[in-house]
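Exercise 3.2. Students should predict the tertiary structure of the chain below and write it as structure tokens, then compare their answer with the key that follows.

Predict this chain's 3D structure.
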Amino acid sequence: MSKKNNLLFIVFDSCRFDTFFNAKTPNIDRLGKKECRYAYASWTIPSHAVYMMGASPHTNGRGVFASEVYKKDFKNYEQRLNIEGVSFKNFVPELSLPAYLRKQGYRTNALVSMPVLNQTTILNKHFDNYELMDEYNNFDAILDELTFYEDTPSFYLLNTGETHYPFTIPGETVNDKELLYGEKGVFRHTDDENFCPDVSNLNDEEISNTYYFMDKMAKLKAKQQSNVEYLDTLIEKLYDIIPENTHIIITADHGELFGENGLFGHGPVFHENVFKVPFIEGRLK
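Answer key:
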């Protein structure tokens, strides 16, 4: 094989599969086919930690021996990196993608937007450069910091929050009264003691209609989709920056609930739409 590929691992934070799939993304589509995959975790830190071990969101196939799934997944880095002989055992004992890449001569970088991924966390290991961005929702600013070298391949973990609640892009603000607070991340603060009704005897549909602002949930979901389309316009800028030999992965760390089963958000909940994430990879076509 010839020159090693640069590798970009781009995470649209909290982006569920259906909003990504339904968004108009002509630039992202140039990489390949959009896939529905499953994250290993429902929260930011553990999900990123698994990805930085070298695993990708999985396909949840049937009739397979589970350990063979991730072994084949590690083997995919042979094509992604343009390096022969890559296998799961190459990542042992560190089980770290950036550690393996450093051994292969890569400069390893992370530009992250979510404060829970800041440089003092467990994620910041085996990176030559690890930076928490000033804004959680400015992928454009992330792109301005990308640097590539002629003789040294680069790896970048990029995490951006335009698809994370409250789903804003640079220049947008959210009125405090419109923010969602509360035990389940739904209600703003209120002095009305009847604001949160008793739902203990209601079914899931009744809870959704009674306990949650479903009209607001629909608007938030639509905003996440429109923000995917905004990010797609920036992917065109990315294509102007990267060298030709650059492999790109675009995915999410987990999904988001918008009222399903009376739930909003992600984290300590179990629902298919929290784990279903988009996945697309390839080189610019």
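Discussion points: The chain has one domain: 6-173+213-283. The domain at 6-173+213-283 is CATH 3.40.720.10 (Alkaline Phosphatase, subunit A).
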